[in-house]
């Protein structure tokens, strides 16, 4: 899968809008400023995935992209375990940072993922004037690569590369860090490109 | 990104869908629903590892390591080409976890992967020396082909198993 510069640009812009809304919703929830990176879009060979997705323990919240698009692919929020503990503490007003992951952390991870991804998909869908909805979330708190493998197994039966679209969100106080990954299936990609091309065609 | 957490520099890390036969140390990091199939020939100090993603190839042949059926036969074929006899080869099967809670079954393909690999090894007459599959935990595997073969399995919960 090769992206031409127009396609990469269009996707980056789309992601930028989505991620900005996700960052805003996170910022409102935490009542603290959130920084975000410019989204990266790349086609990654499945055999090289381990160079992009690490082995450290993270909370991975996964949503299938549903709605008015073909079986769309997946969207993922990945947060290191320290971030999850901090976010739970922040929401509950507790302070113990040196503890095991518990049920409250799991709920918090899912809830935060839900809020961010709903904002992300809402914003991108609104731009394209279609409906995109997240499926109910699935959660793994485990080696990030192990969780991503299971998602990729659903997508890459017939193809050997995956389009990964990644933005990082950070806050300094509380010190938290998260990434949003969008893994669109080729059919959704095609649909997105067509819509984006239409959008960018000047009115005549 | 530090994928080389076993501190072994010569190691070959096999990504999703890759396979390799040789005498060098090999490993895979972060196995979820995927399976690391290791075939080991003690007599030759030779081994092979495949990082299997799905149970059936359904006619795909470009990446044999990706599917249980093509990976198993490709590993065996290559080892036999390098002088192994079928009866000397034993298998280690690791991985096939179900990573996601609150999920429809579609993300939990680990069980199907495990069943496919077991069935294939049985049909081909390859004995499974060690199996660690299923559960809800990610695993990293490290394997040295020399002599009896050395195997380290490291789990996401921090526990570790060393097999000689």
Automatic annotation (TrEMBL), chain A:
Keyword Repeat: no
Keyword Ion transport: no
Keywords: Chemotaxis, Hydrolase
PANTHER family hit by this protein: PROTEIN PHOSPHATASE CHEZ
Domain of life: Archaea
One GO biological process term: chemotaxis
Sequence ranges assigned to domain CheC-like protein in this UniProt record: 6-41, 106-139
Protein name: Chemotaxis protein CheC
GO molecular function, one term: hydrolase activity
CDD domains, A to Z: CheC_ClassI
Natural source organism: Methanoculleus bourgensis (strain ATCC 43281 / DSM 3045 / OCM 15 / MS2)
UniProtKB/TrEMBL annotation, chain B:
Alphabetized SUPFAM superfamilies for the sequence: CNF1/YfiH-like putative cysteine hydrolases (SSF64438)
Primary enzyme class: hydrolase
Organism lineage: Archaea, Methanobacteriati, Methanobacteriota, Stenosarchaea group, Methanomicrobia
Reaction catalyzed: L-glutaminyl-[protein] + H2O = L-glutamyl-[protein] + NH4(+)
GO BP, sorted A to Z: chemotaxis
Enzyme Commission designation: 3.5.1.44
Protein species of origin: Methanoculleus bourgensis (strain ATCC 43281 / DSM 3045 / OCM 15 / MS2)
Signal peptide start and end residues: none
Record-given protein name: Probable chemoreceptor glutamine deamidase CheD
Task performed by this protein: Probably deamidates glutamine residues to glutamate on methyl-accepting chemotaxis receptors (MCPs), playing an important role in chemotaxis.
